[in-house]
Amino acid sequence: MTGSRPRIVARRKKGRALDGVVLLDKPYGVSSNDALQQVRRLLNAQKAGHTGSLDPLATGLLPLCFGEATKLSSYLLSADKHYRVTASLAHETETGDIEGQATEYANVALPSPEWLHDLLTGFVGQLEQIPPMYSALKVDGKPLYAYARAGETVERAPRPVTVHALDLVSFDENTATMTLDVSVSGGTYVRTLVEDIARSWGGRAHVTALRRTGVGHLFAAGQTVALSQIASDCHDPDVPDGTALPAWLLPVSQLLAGWVHIDLDEAQASRIGMGQTLGGYPDLPAGSIRLNGPDGRVIGLGQHKPPNGLSPLRLFSRPLA
């Protein structure tokens, strides 16, 4: 007599199946992952991810994705970033910010505001940037900061980055500080950019404050929510778990605001859902394209398949608002 094969029961995921986005105003001194896990626990969400780390010393916009929205995280890692950065023009530090020990001091006069404006213009456009030793970029499977903390310096190849805009907000000769609004391509190190700007006149600098104000088409002004507000709302006894979702848990489509989009009819959406390529799209731009179903909800991302095709890139398991 043969025994029956044991039944395998899938483990049920803990938490609520939430789909949405939180535009967190990350506080100073908290890592991006710690902030993410705090919000995930407060929402009791099954699945969560963020769209690119902010240093613990940085503040500002950190988009947090929940449920199906996590499928978009990797596509926003390379999105343009926008920052307001304040720098001391007195010296460099080993980490490029106020955490590190001073290494080299400036021994030349500061530029005039007019000269500084001209210098900044020269940094707009495509640049080659050497990643800093104190960064999470990995070499041979090991983050650069681990080598730096061990007193080792690793050869790093320059990487292409783009500075889209660089505006001087303030310049104080008495305190030797400057504040800049910066718009850069994903993967740009603002600490390194600040050092390079100061070195262009023979000076030295390090970042004293960094605030991210935008990611792609998302901007912090009027949209972000503080971690303390999330905690307060989630602990509100008048809002029991499982009822109406908070207003700051935004629809997934918020992440895709401003993206190129295509509206599909029912037959087209069905074919895309089966992994098929649609014809009749010769002039699509490169990159990811938002795909809307016949009811206007987002069904996923598509891409141009030359010469005239539209193919699925990443699809949601269900249409999302």
The tally of beta strands, per DSSP, is 18
Decide which structural class fits the backbone: alpha+beta
Order of helices and strands: EHEEHEEEHEEEHEEHEEEHEHEEE
Largest sheet: 10 strands, mixed
| Cα-based radius of gyration, to the nearest Å | 23 Å
Q: What's the structural domain tally?
A: 3
CATH level-1 class of the largest domain: Alpha Beta
Oligomer: single chain
- The CATH architecture assignment of the largest domain turns out to be 2-Layer Sandwich
Write down the CATH topology of the largest domain: Pseudouridine synthase
In angstroms, what separates the terminal alpha carbons?
54 Å
Average residue-wise pLDDT: 91
Work out the helicity level. 10-25%
Assign an overall shape. globular
Low-confidence stretches: none
CATH superfamily of the largest domain: Pseudouridine synthase
Number of distinct helices: 7
Beta-strand fraction estimate:
25-35%
Task: Provide a descriptive summary of the structure in words.
The structure is a single chain. By secondary structure, this protein is α+β, with helices and mostly antiparallel strands. The chain folds into three domains: 20-79 and 219-252, Pseudouridine synthase, CATH 3.30.2350.10; 81-215, Pseudouridine synthase (2-Layer Sandwich), CATH 3.30.2350; 259-320, Archaeosine Trna-guanine Transglycosylase, Chain: A, domain 4. 18% of the residues lie in helices and 33% in strands. The radius of gyration is 23 Å and the shape is globular. It is an enzyme of class 5 (isomerase). Residues 40-190 form the Pseudouridine synthase II N-terminal domain.
